[in-house]
Structure of Methyltransferase type 11:
Amino acid sequence: MLQLKTKYKTWIRIYKLLIFLVISLIFLSVTILPVNTYVRILSGILAVPFLYITLILSYSIYQFASIGGNYQSKIHDLIVSKVKWDGDGTLLDIGTGSGSLIIKLAKAFPTSVLTGIDYWGGNWEYSKAQCQQNAEIEGVSHQIHFVKASASELPFNENEFDVIVSCLTFHEVKDRSNKTDVIKEALRVLKPGGEFVFLDLFMDEKIFGDEKEQLLNDLKKYGVSELNRSKLDKEMKLPKILLNKKVLGNAVILSGRK
Ligand SMILES: C[S@@+](CC[C@H](N)C(=O)[O-])C[C@H]1O[C@@H](n2cnc3c(N)ncnc32)[C@H](O)[C@@H]1O
């Protein structure tokens, strides 16, 4: 019988890589065409940044994937290790993607009930069906509900969850311009005393504002009573390419309690 395999896919979307690859190839092909020398030189110069991004994206995919450095799975393991919980109660994963993190959490906390939400838009290569299939293959589908919803407006009551995790999702939420509001929404559905572990590009000022002056103070205003902060690259050794600011160079883990 055909054995189904889990599919998690990396955080780098293949269509993005293809766009940069195609543009690089177009510019490169002009350099060998029998056209004006200046046009060929200009095309060669224009090809450089696109080639550079193509290389960064390709190598990042390799480092994130299980056939390469497996860093995506290692980062999820790190988040799981940050959850200090007895597993009694409910957990929410915001922006669950292909279910990789929530499935690890279900295995780590076999008595817990978990919910994974995502809007699974067409611009991502993840789906609810893929999450469900992955959970079934991993033997934890009885523990997890997958719900289609936006992180900007969670379909849950206040104080509903004992634990909330989120990995690289807040900065992606397009239907809320102020990304700190998305974190506020996450904290709304967390029980008082409940635990959170959020990994995101919190050091990117263009997305979250000044982290230390603004973001951390805002979290306290939203009811966070205990707050720990650590830079991802201080928690684990990452390949240099993943430390690029456009990849994980601005990644920080914020954890604590409401
Ligand atoms: C970089 S991926 C991370 C996925 C997953 N957390 C992981 O670590 O594998 C970002 C995720 O955010 C989700 N996302 C983007 N905007 C969202 C929104 N408004 N509401 C919920 N999820 C969203 C995407 O669908 C995608 O799954």
Summary: The CA atoms of residues 118 and 237 lie 29 Å apart. The first strand starts at residue 90 and ends at 94. The chain has two domains: 14-64, 71-257.
